[in-house]
Amino acid sequence: MRAWTMRWTTGLLGALFALSLLACSGGGGGGGGTTTFSLAVTGNPTGARVFLNGQLVENPQRIVLPPGAHRIRVETTLSNGQVVAQEFTVVAGAVGSIQYDLSRYQIETNPATIEVWAGEQIPVAATLRDLQTNGVVSADFVFSVRDANLATAQKLSANSVRITGLRRGATRLVITDAGTGVTFEVPVSVLDFPPPPN
To answer: Among the four 58, 129, 167, 173, which has the fewest Cβ within 10 Å?
Structure first.
C-alpha cells in the first residue's frame, strides 16, 4: 500500500509541476502571456509612410502585431500635392509580409487644379492611368471630401463627381479605385472672395 501511495504522490506532483510550467509560459489560454506576430511592409517607393491602425510606424520592416485584424495604410505625397495611398486589412499571423506599389497608378483629374467658389459647384472628371503601360485603366471610383464642412462630393458617374463649395478653406478630394485599392487625395480650394463673375 505504501509503494502505491508513493507512486501516486510522485505522479501527482509531476503533473502539478508540468501545469505550473505551462501557466508560467503563458500557454493553455489562461491569460498568462500574449502572442504577437511580425509583419514586414515593403514596396515602391521605399520612403513611403506606413500606418498601423492610424499610428505611424517607425520600422515598417518589423511591425509587431497583437492577435486580431489590423488596418495597414501606406502613403506618399507627390510633387503636385496629391497623396497616393493603399490600404490593407491583415489578420495577425495570416501573412508575414505586404508588398505595395504606389508608383504604378496615377489618378488625373480634369480640371487638374480643383478650385470652387463657396455656394457654387464644379464637375470633376477622374482618369486612372497605369504608368507602366501609359494606358488608361477602367475604374469605378469612390469619391469623398476630407472636410465635409468646406465642400461636398456627389458622384455623377463611375469616373466623375460634382464638388460643391460650402465655406472658404482648403481640403482634399479623396478618390479611391475599387479595383486596385489605390487612393489619391487631390487638393481642393474653396474660395469666397472676390465673388465669381456673372
So the answer is: 58
CA atoms within 13 A on the CB side of 144: 7
Per-residue pLDDT of 68-85, as tens digits, reads 999 999 999 888 778 899
Does 80 map to a domain? no
Based on the fold, state whether residues 50 and 67 are members of the same structural domain: yes
**CATH number of the structural domain spanning residue 177:** 2.60.40.1080
Domain span including residue 137: 105-191
Q: Which residues contact 47 (CB under 8 A, 6 or more apart)?
A: 76
CA distances from 137 to 125, 126, 134, 174, 180 (A): 14, 11, 9, 18, 10
Cα 117 to Cα 22, 63, 102, 167, distances in angstroms: 67, 44, 32, 8
Cell matching residue 79 = 510633387
Total domains in the chain come to 3
pLDDT at 167 over 90: yes
